[in-house]
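quick one, 102 residues, struct below
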Amino acid sequence: MGLYGASGMHTPESCPLNNSQNRKIVLDLSGTIDTKAMNNDVKIVGQYHSPLEHTFLWILEAKDAQTIQKFMIESGWAKFNDVKIVPVATFVNVVAECKKIE
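---
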């Protein structure tokens, strides 16, 4: 399993705080997200949002980025967000790699 950051944004007009259709997606997802993640072999490590900047960062574990892409689509999150998926590492892992080089 790899560690990934899924980050993205939406417009103020499509924000769930301003858009009833997308608000419904968020409210529905809040009750099913753990099941959808599990069904897609994704583990949610953390979810962080900046509501007034209309941005988010989720930390997820999965076998590959395509698995997370599938999860983002099936969960409905990609319906109103631009999503970027990148591999990430913990700071502890970065330090360990630096020590190997020295």
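The chain has a mean pLDDT of 97.
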